[in-house]
Batch of 4 targets.
Target 1
Amino acid sequence: MVAKVANSGTYFMNGDEACCEGALAAGCRFFAGYPITPATEIAEAMSRRLPQLGGIYIQMEDEIASMAAILGASWGGVKSMTSTSGPGFSLMMENIGLGIATETPCVVCNVQRAGPSTGLPTLTAQGDMMQARWGSHGHYEIIALSPSSPQEMFDMTVRAFNLSEYFRLPVLIMADEVVGHMNERVVIPHEDEIEIISRRKPSVAPEDYLPYGADDDWIAPMANCGDGYRIHITGLTHDERGYPAMNAEAHERMVTRLVNKIRKNLDKITATRNMYMDDAEVIVVSYGISARSAMKAVRDARNEGIRAGLIKLETVWPFPEELIRSVAKNAKALIMAEINGGQMVLELERVVRGACPVHLISNYGGAIIHPGKILEVISKAAKGKL
Amino acid sequence: MTTAKAARHLPPHPMDSLLRTERIPHIWCPGCGIGTVFNALLTAISESGYDPDAVAMVSGIGCTGRMAGYIRLDSFHTTHGRALPFATGLKLAKPDTKIIVVSGDGDLFAIGGNHFIHAARRNIDMTVVCVNNFNYGMTGGQQAPSTPLGAKTSTSFSGAPEEPFNFCDLAASCGAAYVARWTAQQVRSIRSSINEAMEKRGFGFVEVIAPCPSAFGRRNRMGSALEMLKFYRGRSVTRSDIDTREATLDIDREIVVGKFVDIERPTFMDHYNKYNRPQMPPWRAGNPGHKDKR
């Protein structure tokens, strides 16, 4: 007897468990991981659920091996993922780069805790946002999602798999300890109602196949190991055949495509949830658990008659530049709320380019941002007293 | 360019069907032992009778790791030291594929040492071929975990101050199901060991002591490539089925070669199915790769 893929129904579950269920619903059948607080519950849930579905759970010797194993499994044609937190995320960086360069679909969930180093293992933070963007060496584009609730852990994990399969790259889920550990209502739809995207397969004969020959949308169809295409995959700079090409021109061509397959497809990737934005003049931009605090603050501000609005980043990378630029023109102020010393605020400032004042509300980690703190800044900004 | 042009006029090689001939000439130095091992490996794969579409090669970084770029199989050139965990994921996702991992001593046992001991412990069904040339050749000959005590490398000018690993003993103690060592001149033995390791259900390890005349040989005044080849062969003594603790690898005294381990042990998937999904058929029954002979 094989268990059902998605246990559709309404549940009271924590974000880590919801992440596991989202992955399974998306078709994930391989998980390699290493225990780490506060992401361990994802691995635990996977170790129980995957064997029931004919999948593989393997506990690797470290996060370097976990990341390498999910890349290998993905080339074996199986949707794969791993989960971790800060220290493990640091160890995964090199092979995340291998996944980017070799264009390997897979999902990495980072349930963030406070750093640097071992930091606060059991307490929340959003301190890995720039690491998510630039942590692996070299230039590349990345996709990172930021869930604010257990429900979004489910939904965004499904989406992360779909994006990774479509765009052929490791997609990051940048969760945090509170979202991972809190229990809330999670509705798992019937499997027929869940959209599943799988990698594009080559339609040409092996002798005509170019593993990195992209279609018009910059994305190359992917032959799996054993499909008869005799592919060669390398982390070295490579040409369309996948063969090493050690010169500046080949490198320019390869990286341009890796960048363009994201930059030229922003409409398929970028997602925000906007609240009270029709007439907003003080706009909070936030993501993950901090967006929950911001939501309360913005609602309270509205009750006080302040024209406040919220842009909740569902994709943190790529950053929604166009939207931010357009709202900045008429805003009194933009406020970033995040649990780090100010990371995504740098991106906000870069995009706003002085069109309006930008403020940061933050702490270094260990606690969520109190909505009152955000409300206070909104009120001051509305009065022009910041 | 001259070399590339010359290569185009070479007569066909018997192993051309398994080579990405458009990538020849290769990058290996004249006299390097890797070519010999690669040839033995290609012959072993060819003779094994497996459908080449069901055989994959995974390599790490370094001179030996470049084999993956020349073999016409599904081939994966991964990051430094990480061939084994990558191959583990590939194997478990696609259990009907024969996996061959090739890499050097530095890749498999320094940066990748942790992965080696765990892959052997788990008894992942794969064949690992290690070309041991006693140094990091690709980067110009630095000290490796295989460098003999006192040997000169570019990072041990006055002699390596560390004692090397005995890889075969390490593999055996970690649970490898098949362990053998040969020198690069013993091509027939290398070939048959690779064949036996491929046939073995579980983790097979074949170490080949190979000359690196450009770096290790030059710094240690070991003469030409041929002289190195003969030197290693001359130092070798065949003692199969001995305790790997006695499988000495000391280029000043003796290089013990032979087949040291050939045992049956349940693989990772055997145990996984037993504990996690007893309702499913045994792994082997659902694994055509094991009877995929032509």
Target 2
Amino acid sequence: MIFLQNAIDAISLGAVYALAALGIGLIFSIMRLINFAHGELIMVGGFVLYGLAGQPYLVMGLASILVVAILALGMERIAFRPLRKASPATLLIASFAVSYLLQHVVLMVFGARPMGVDFLAQFGDSVELGVLRVPKLQFAAIIVTIVSLVCLALFFRRSRIGVEMRAAAEDFTMARLLGVRANRVIAVAFVISGVLASMVSLYLVAQTGSVSYKMGVNMVLIAFVASVIGGMGSLTGAALGGFLVGIVSVSLQAYLPVDLRPYRDAFVFLAFIAFLLWRPQGLMTRRADMERV
Amino acid sequence: MLSVKDLHVSYGNIVALRGVSLEVAEGEIVAVIGPNGAGKSTLLLTIAGVVRAKQGEVRLGDAPILGIAPELLAARGVALVPEGRHIFGSLTVAENIALGATTRRDRAAIAADIERALDMFPILRERYRQRAGKLSGGEQQMLAIARALLARPKLLLLDEPSLGLAPLIVRQVYDAIFALKRQGMTVLIVEQSVHRAVAAADRTYVVNSGQIAMSGRSSELHGTAAFDAAYFGMGAEKGVR
């Protein structure tokens, strides 16, 4: 039973990591940009919830998704589009700059202390399934992630822009030679990435009941690791990597000796260093991406 | 249809094209041949908007097109089949072909054109739902040409269509090029393999060291001593034109 309880915990945590990793992986697959400012999209989503506290939850959630999607679009237009032909290193540094800028704007306005937000507080209640006790939030995370993955898969396979995005992710120049509009494809990728980031912020705020200007930092690091584990450039890999990181984290938390549990994250990253030594290209990656990574 | 004047292109300090000029009339097939590293692919990539020119002029019809983004040139009717095919390996053959029609919205006509492309290359019909990465080199070349034709291009640019293919497949690819010629399509072919390109082309330009070393009607050039001299790099020094 304890194993089953841990499995549910692992899958629900992995689901959230998968959403975050998909946001990072999607932008990388098209632009070769590792967008560390993705964490600040998550953070801004949280502060939108804080700003609208007291409104109906649906209004808070939809507003958060809308604002973050628009912010992601603006980030692309202002910070990354002028640098599109720059090297991946320049783009990476630009993403750090955007990240610090957004963090410090929020720090100046709201201060450094975490602030409480009432958002989906009742989702902290647990559902009893026999001897298992599963918080509603974990169910919600799993269901929302599965629905999002199915929607994304349908979007990429069935819609014209989705197929164009897959083509652009594989060979951007060739896609442009066929008439695929670079600006449109990248803008749509940023909007999707923003929506994914805002869903992560909804989960984080519902889980912790607070927001802070650094709330996205840890998540973006984990998402980056997950997308590398999954294979940079592969969206399926990013989702799998997210689940894998979640499963490993919860397993170590559950099965490490008690004295070592405070150092769980060190063991998690040690495990992934060993994994990357064995398989540096990640779980799934295309040959074309190996050189770039 | 296509007019290139005094085109200069460099990659950093390396000069790839030095004042190349050429003309392609509507409905004409023109071959640009030359040894490896002569600047042939750079010429096509510059016309298609991928590589920036340092100096010169490229016109499609009356409109200057130099410096226009590749996706906008595609919308104006320029289609490139690049060296190495560049098909999308993780997409199906069907998706690859459909991407050729990205700039079009006439669904019924697109469906008819897909049928025509599959009639031209029947093997693609058999592989229609397969991932393009699973195709052989020859099938990928056919797919790349079929995809380009879906754009209904005014000008088709073919970069080394026979490179790395078995002789039988090269014949099939050139049969398709002859079919395009009969349909009156305007084509600019770049090739290292002289014989087939010159046989298919109305006119031929020989490029060497980034310059046009020689040009003329294909039937008059091929096999002459001056042609061989130009191809192997002696023509430019002797001022053959």
Target 3
Amino acid sequence: MNFLTYLISGISLGSVYAIIALGYTMVYGIAKMLNFAHGDFIMVGCYAIFSIVSATSGSPAGMILGVVAATVICTLVGVTTERVAYRPLREAGSPLAVLITAIGVSYLLENLALLIFGSDPKSFTPVITWSGISIGALRIQGVTIVTIAVSLLVLICLTWFIGNTKSGQAMLAVAQDRGAATLMGINVNKTITMTFAIGSALAAIAGALQCSAYPTLTPYTGAMPGIKAFVAAVLGGIGSIPGAMIGGILLGIIEILGRSYISSQLADAIVFGVLIVVLLVRPTGILGKKIQEKV
Amino acid sequence: MALLEVSDLKVYYGVIQALKGISFKVEKGEIVALIGANGAGKTTTLHTIAGLLKAGSGSIIYKDKDISKIPGHEIVSMGMAQVPEGRRVFADMTVAQNLALGAFTRTDKKEIADTLAQIYDRFPRLSERQNQLAGTLSGGEQQMLAMGRALMSHPDIILMDEPSMGLSPLLVNEIFDIIESVHKDGTTVLLVEQNAKKALSIADRAYVLETGSISMEGKASDLLHNEAVRKAYLGE
């Protein structure tokens, strides 16, 4: 029974990683950049929910409003970051400068949060208050069920969006060949902006789930899940959407099982050990494709 | 006024000048060939017209409008399509999805469906392979897909970059037959080719591009019999 409990909480944690990893992987696949500030978008979302939930003294309507506002704010932050910080450098043709700028944006967001909210951890009123269900001796918490359900819903919606809408197809085209996409009449910059918008909105959702499961909030709340989600994206094959989902869930399971059976202090080391092993054994990840250099 | 008129076009890659001020025009209803050796600037010319590269100076007048400063994705909806060098189909997408992307700038679903039906008529092999990933097609089929995809935008002018590259002689003939039939149906064609003989045999007029400058121009049939062209480009 213990194993099942661990497994389910691993899947739940992994679902949060998966949603964050989706944002990483989409931005990487389409804009060809690693947005290292992505984890901090989660933190922005968490503070947005925190502020609104506190202001409305924890009413259920306030929570819903908080999640919606967090999504809007994260989307705006993501789109603005792309427009102001990344696009000019991308157009100047400097991938390394974009990467360094992303790290800069990450520090900027963390320190802005420090300035506005201070360094004291905020304790968070959980967004999800449902106590969950029991099957025999197995207890599954409400937040676990909601997290897994939301992730599944996100994956289904995203897959449908990409496969069945013009904008989704444009994203796939830009991911494969920007020049050819332009020749189809696709506005590449607009498509990249949209990718950032979706990725950032996903970060807000991940933030809401993360804060429900671990209700303490500091300016660095997003950093660790952000990096782990990056590992998840690499594990699944960066650029691949189902890969991010599989990588995220696997990593969550590895982390929880590692924490439970090996050592709780080594759990993070195990997670990053996975990254090293993946890079050594299968650098393209589980679903990643071999990148062929064009001659 | 010509449908497309390029005047004194100069293009640079950093400090290297790829086009040293070329001028040419394409009248409505013509097939114009741009021939020349590898590295002469043929692809650079087409990429600059399509807005993938920035023009250093000069003008590109299309339908009475200078398009040299217009972003590439907006040029497509003005009725100009390109079949790029190396085909550049979206390998991880199906044939049908590739063709649908070709109609990205169009909105009328019924008209798009009509065009799609015409394209499947013209390329029965694409019709058979609608659900196959483009990356798994043969070279000839990919070329047909790239052409079909460009035609999906229902262009007034189609720019083709080395459509015969890497194909067997039999397929080359097939591709050129298709170009002629597309032209017959009313599309103006600007054809860039290394296969000068085939290009000159279907073109109305032609320009010879040599290291970034136009060295010769004239009626295609005249160039086909020109001593210098025969020596340099037809291997005779």
Target 4
Amino acid sequence: MLRDPISDMHSEAWWMRALDGELTCAEERAWQAHLAQCPSCRQEWTALTQVETLLRTATPPPLLPDDFTARTVTVIAQKQKLRAMLRFIVGFVLFALVAWVGLGYCSATLHELVQTVGAVIASRQILFAALMRTLVGLALTVKTFLPLIAGIAVALFLFLMPNSVLATVAMVRLSQKRQARSTAA
Amino acid sequence: MEEEWLLLAQRGEEEAVNRLVATYQQSVFNLCYRMLGEYTEAEDAAQEALIKAVMHLHTYDPERPFKPWLLRIASNECIDRIRRRKPTVSLDGMGDDGAWEWQAGHSPNPETEMLQHERQAQIQELLGSLPPLDRSIIAMFYWEGLSYTEIGEATGLSVPAIKSRLFRARRVMAQLLVEEGVYVA
């Protein structure tokens, strides 16, 4: 059953269904009856069906030339090669760029390392020279005060020597002196 | 089977690329020819579309049908070409070279040849009155045998939108037929 036959038939949805052959038998009968009565719908419908026939029976477009496939495949192969080459070049440039940055960083770090090691070595030499100068100075200073140091050492030795040893030494010296006097007499 | 050589073509295998081009070139050309209405330009557009398709095969989703994807590229190529055209360039009929190609066709009967040429020119004139996207929809529906869903895949429109555009395009062409007096009551 049609809700409102005339307004339904003038709607785009109805025309689309009619053109696509989707109307039921009852709708188709009602549609044909409407077309018989409505000149504007009939004119448009006829024109539309003519367009439909024209499009459906259109002669196919001319064929492509025989060498079309070969030409197209050749161009594709060239473009693929070009793309591969571009990819290689871009990859190489990127690699070179990364390598350049990396090497630059490494070089800077190496330079710093060399400088640090150089500074350490130089410091060691300076320290060694200072040490040597100090030792030489000390040696010279020790030579100047050597008799004093030796006297102090002897004095300390004597001062700290045990009494029995001193008494023994004194007795030996005295007996040597007596012997010498008696020999002389 | 098709999936296999599409996969091989994606990897750049020349034999598979050759097969892909040979299989779809005429469909692509037909769409371009219907949209552009000129043999030489359609041939160039078809070649460009096939090249673009092969070069962008990595973006194709194997889960979806291939032909709508390919025709979408061809349609976009034609739309770009139509936009680049100068406004003074008319779309009616075929170009001089197109007419020449047609006259040098296969039919031995000059009258039939002439009639076909006239119908072809009439179709091109009708198509020329439509926006490029509608031309593409008409060509895919009537001459490439794509379903509404596949046309939706190719154009990015919904099925109701496709149906509506298709109907309106046919209505525009029908009105043109009435205006030009070609319509037979």
